[in-house]
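Posting for a labmate who doesn't have an account.
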Amino acid sequence: MTTTSSTAAITGCYTSPSLSRNTRTCNGVYSTRRSFTAAMTFGEQNTEKEAHDILNYSFDQGINILDTAEAYPIPMKKETQGRTDLYIGSWLKTQPRDKVIIATKVCGYSERSSYIRDNAKVLRVDASNIKESVEKSLKRLNTDYIDLLQIHWPDRYVAIFGEFTYDFNKWRSGVPFEDQLKALQEVIDEGKKLCCVLFSSRDDFSLWERPLYTITTTLSRDCISINSLILHITYVVDLVEVCHPNNYNIGLLAYSPLGGGNLTGKYLDPKSDASKKGRLNLFPGYMERYNSSYAKEVTSKYVELGKKHGLSPVELALGFVRDRPFVTSSIIGATSVDQLKEDIDAFLMSPRPFPPEIMQEIEYIFKRNKDPAID
């Protein structure tokens, strides 16, 4: 990356025993074709025992990267906030800490979630918020270091959480990126052990802003976090060139590669048990873009495509994400061991890479149904 401001460098990151064991890196960031295990349902849809069963199975299968956040479980609410971390923390007591990679996140700007802080009316990505977030996360997770810390969403206004079009009237002054870097440096200087700091971006502006500042530590780098590549195409259309290894070499961490479960096809039959138990129906309004849009019709096209080639909907969706050259890893979530097993098997057992005819048919549907979740 181009560097022009040495004052913004993050130095002194703690060397994670977990990260240092892994040899495959992308531009200084640990990257893997294995998946992260998403824990955001722990404490809402999953009991502590169920959470531990899922984590045990994941760990036994060689997936040692756990995705959490101070805001989890979802949907976000005061009564359950932090419970996901607590369940992971209790599980960690029985595990070799140096073999588990914990990835967590600091909340971005929020007026509705001030309950996450002790004394704040609005969440910001500034020094006091970052410090409190890290301290509380360490305590809940029952650990003395964080392997991977991410900014969950930006401090400035961006069109996310179901929005698509940028609203000029919602512009607000955000905490400058350089100040965020300095705040993270202060946390490290105070002795908090952060191993790798990533700035999760979902937009062009974030990526063009960041090369103006130095991120020099070996374990500190940019990443992008975007969901379902088939139903949400912002990255594929707008950001691939920027992130190319010969340009800024920024990896993609794909979250929700099944589109909140939509791409499993379970919501196509609203009367099925799987549909009724799915979060899109359990929590009215949650990820509404998948329920009230053209996404279901397009999902049915992908389901039929998979069936034609002997692939389950899960194999088609996860295999597609797995093989994108710009994806360094992906985050898969499951509310049962059976779901997790199906997801892992899909990664391992589906053809790799997909035959040209499958890719051509995916491309055909894709070109005629770009970003159906916004319709």
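Reply:
Got it, the structure tokens are right above this. The mean pLDDT is 83.
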